[in-house]
Structure formats: structure tokens, C-alpha cells
Design brief:
Structural class: alpha/beta
Helix content: 25-40%
Distance between the termini: 38 Å
CATH topology of the largest domain: D-Maltodextrin-Binding Protein, domain 2
Largest sheet: 10 strands, mixed
Keywords: Periplasm, Signal, Transport
Number of helices: 12
GO biological process, one term: polyamine transport
Subcellular location: Periplasm
Strand content: 15-25%
Pfam families: SBP_bac_8
Number of strands: 12
InterPro entries: SBP, Sperm_putr-bd
CATH class of the largest domain: Alpha Beta
């Protein structure tokens, strides 16, 4: 079942809480595999490892030391979200490193697709914030299965010039405002989609909702559906529409705000009264990685963890 179908069935009441939680926790085991063709960023090279990551996180500025040492970036393939990545890898797509967020690590471990990472090979490991090294589910039986590299949040990016009434009333509710029908956007993702709706309706734990909370979330998604211009799979697509004024508000990661502000676009990034969603993402070493490329794999990880990458 495609993630779009899961969201649609939840919104229209054709999926129960039990079925939804099973689909969410399966994290793509039954998802339909999407074509890879247009998502390849760099031509394949037999010397480089393959990194499976998010759009915008593949840029050479984030692994400059690797480029300086080897002359070019590793092979890069882009996924829209971890459900897509999980489905492709389970279907046989082989990569060396993948960049999920922490909530996926225990599931990927149970699926047998990730291996422990030897942090002694990472010169920048001592500089990582200690708390981020021990996020629940990322250290299993004393072994490190995840290298944290990105810490951010999901919130509402909006145009204050187009929706001034929300400047002093920061709320996820803007994404349900019928006044802006056709000028709103949500991420095409179970986590950044359904969980946002759960936060909006006041679910105590969006990842383990009660029947009543699930019913409220379902109703909110059903109410929102006709208001949405599009569900974005590419953050740049959403950012371009926001810059052009086609969108008034959208779910966004904090880097989207930074990019548009740098371009001189009048945008604000909310601290919603219902609460924002924080996340930590990073890298996992895949079970079917190419052992002959381990040196480059660790060099890439170390480059990504560097101070220079953080400054960028």
C-alpha cells in the first residue's frame, strides 16, 4: 500500500487505528516501490560508496573533506522519505549508507538491514553532543547503529504578508484555515503528515494514539484534504511555491526557512502553540554495503560530521 493511500484511508475512515499503527510501524514493508531513474543525483562510479539520502542533504558542501580527498562526491541517490527508502532497500536496491531519522533505527535493526558503526574510525565523533549519541533505540546491546548528523524541527513556514493574522497567533491551525484553500501544503510523509495532524488535535503521544485521538486525527485530515494545493515530496518544490506566493503556509523543516530568508523572501517560521516536532537524523551502515569501500564510507561520515559541514 502506498503512503498516499494510507493517509487517504485514514482521513476517510477506511483504516482503523490498529491498521494504521501496523502500517506506520511496518515503515514501508508493503509499500509499492517507486522508480529510481530521475532521483539519481550523480553518475555511478565503481570507486565510490552509494549514499541514500534526502534532497538537499547531498550537496558537496556537506562533505567537502571527502571531495577534497577523492576528487568528487560519492554516488548519491535521493529518497522522498524513509518509507520509500525502506521499501526500495527491502526490494533489493543496494546502498552503503542511508540517512534516516532516529525513530526508524529500531525498525531497520529488526529488519536486519543495518550494522554497527565503528566510531573509533571517526575523528569527529568526540565532538558530537553526548546526548545525541545515546538517543533511545540507536544504541543496541552496547553497539552504535546510528551516527547523528542533523538536528532540527518540523513546523509551519508561512508568508506573514499574506496571512498577517497569524503573526501573533502561531498555530498549526493555519493549515486548516478555509480562507487559504488551495494555498496550503503538507509534506507527503506519514511522519510529517499524520503526526502533524495528531499534534494539532492535541494527541498526548502522536506515535501511540488512543482510539479517541485517532478519530480526531482522522477527522482533521479529512477536513484538511480539500484545502491542500499539493503534498510536497520535494522541499524545493514547496519553497519555490512559497517564494512565488502560490502558497501561504506549509509544513517545513527549519532549513527551508533559512533558505528563503537568505533569498530575501518575506517568510516566518512558527513556534506553534500546540508544539513543534523535533527530530534527529543521521547515518546507518547497511548490511549489504561493499566492504571494499569501508575506508571511503568512514571518510564520508567523518566529512559530514565536521565543523565545516556544521558551519555550512
Amino acid at each position: 500500500m502506498k503512503k498516499e493511500e494510507i493517509i487517504e484511508q485514514l482521513a476517510t475512515g477506511r483504516m482503523s487505528r490498529r491498521q494504521f499503527n501496523r502500517n506506520l510501524m511496518a515503515l514501508g514493508a508493503t509499500m509499492v516501490m517507486m522508480p529510481m531513474g530521475s532521483r539519481m543525483t550523480h553518475a555511478a562510479s565503481g570507486d565510490h560508496p552509494t549514499v541514500f539520502t534526502w534532497e538537499g542533504w547531498e550537496v558537496p558542501e556537506l562533505h567537502a573533506a571527502y571531495v577534497a580527498k577523492y576528487g568528487s562526491s560519492p554516488n548519491i541517490s535521493i529518497f522522498a522519505d524513509e518509507e520509500e527508502a525502506f521499501a526500495k532497500m527491502r526490494a533489493g536496491f543496494k546502498v552503503d549508507l542511508t540517512q534516516p531519522c532516529t525513530y526508524k533505527v529500531p525498525i531497520w535493526y529488526d529488519a536486519g538491514i543495518i550494522l554497527p558503526i565503528d566510531t573509533s574510525r571517526l575523528s569527529n565523533w568526540p565532538d558530537i553532543i553526548p546526548t545525541l549519541k545515546n538517543i533511545p533505540g540507536t544504541v543496541i546491546d552496547g553497539k552504535q547503529y546510528f551516527v547523528p548528523t542533523d538536528w532540527g524541527q518540523t513546523s509551519v513556514l508561512y508568508r506573514p504578508d499574506l496571512a498577517p493574522e497569524y503573526v501573533n497567533n502561531e498555530t498549526w491551525g493555519i493549515l486548516w484555515d478555509p480562507k487559504y484553500k488551495g494555498r496550503l501544503s503538507m509534506a507527503d510523509s506519514l511522519i510529517d503528515g499524520v503526526m502533524v495532524a495528531a499534534i494539532y488535535v492535541g494527541a498526548k503521544n502522536p506515535f501511540n494514539m488512543t482510539d479517541a485521538e485517532m478519530a480526531k486525527t482522522r477527522a482533521a485530515l479529512k477536513e484538511q484534504l480539500p484545502l491542500i494545493r499539493f503534498y510536497w515530496g520535494s522541499s524545493s518544490e514547496m519553497e519555490q511555491a512559497m517564494a512565488a506566493g502560490e502558497l501561504v503556509a506549509a509544513t517545513s523543516w527549519n532549513d527551508g526557512y533559512a533558505k528563503l530568508k537568505k533569498e530575501g523572501i518575506n517568510v516566518k517560521y512558527m513556534n506553534p502553540k500546540e508544539g513543534a516536532m523535533t527530530w534527529v537524523c543521521g547515518f546507518c551502515l547497511m548490511t549489504d554495503h561493499d566492504p571494499s569501500k569501508l575506508d571511503r564510507i568512514y571518510d564520508y561520515l567523518d566529512a559530514y560530521m565536521s565543523v565545516e559541514s556544521g558551519v555550512y
